[in-house]
Amino acid sequence: MKLSTYNFLTSMAIKGVKVGYPLKLRITKKDLVESEFNPTFIERLLPKLDWSAVHAAAQQAELADDIPAEQPENIAENELLMQKLHHLLFEIDVLEGEMECPETGRVFPITDGIPNMLLNEDEV
Amino acid sequence: MARLKLKKLEEYLQCVDGFEKPKILLEQYPTPPHIAACVTHHIQSQHDDIEGRLVADLGCGCGMLSIGSTLLGAQLTVGFELDEAAADIFRGNVVEMELPNVDCVRADVLQLVGSKWDNAFDTVVMNPPFGTKRNAGMDMRFLEVATHLATGAVYSLHKTSTRSYIEKKSKEWGAQSSVVAELRYNIEASYKFHKQQSKDIEVDFWRFDVTSI
Q1: For chain A, which domains are there?
Q2: Would the ipTM clear 0.85, i.e. be above it?
Q3: Which domains does chain B have, with CATH numbers?
């Protein structure tokens, strides 16, 4: 699972959960993959990113130094940061880990690179 | 323009592993490589809706359409699949073919609306369950979800017999629909109760422009 995918995952389908975001991410095993840097794409993706989730993901991926806690202004003009953002979002593949709902503590496992967001019938 | 020729794309897609034990209730018919290649190649070469885009594949199964999109240069493709066995084969395909830009998420497609996935994607491609196995209307429910998730266009396969109904529904949703092609969809004898060795059904390949929703 790429961290760009993590940016969109929520636990809001759980009954009673209001926001369910961001999920608390824990990475136990990850891989590095190579992906072509496309600054235009990253720029279009920016409004869809939640910086708090991006920052939390960077800390979990041991890339905390690359991503500032607050989203800088004019980030699209900062090519180095855009490259670091690309690396974080598209080149880290989370193989094993989990994500925890911030409201209920429900844990969603990540196994062999696949996050399992399925809920039991009594949870929805 | 597409970065791969149609023929080459189809050759690659022939290496994609399919269902080991297809489940009837989930309508796990594989999308044949030829159809997947034609569909994804058309989307890229005629509409430029894949290369450099964020693409979703709803009910992705073993990933035939996801992998087609990725081979044609999607920046990231996210396949959503309920079934564990299918998701595992999907992931196996992706690892085997060394494709970096494609993820599989195990989730219920019907629960995606109203989440952060709303308007997250440029393009949705899918071959939904046709809703013939005690789940009538499932393809329409998938289609409605897709119109929420995409900001650009949705591409989908539906039985030709439902054409006028789909036209009506898509108008209600505010999507501009058009039938791109009529396909003879060859379902191999993947379930034991299929009497004929192979059975063709008539399927429409649709494009829905959702930019004004």
Answers
A1: 3-115 (2.20.25.10)
A2: yes
A3: 6-209 (3.40.50.150)
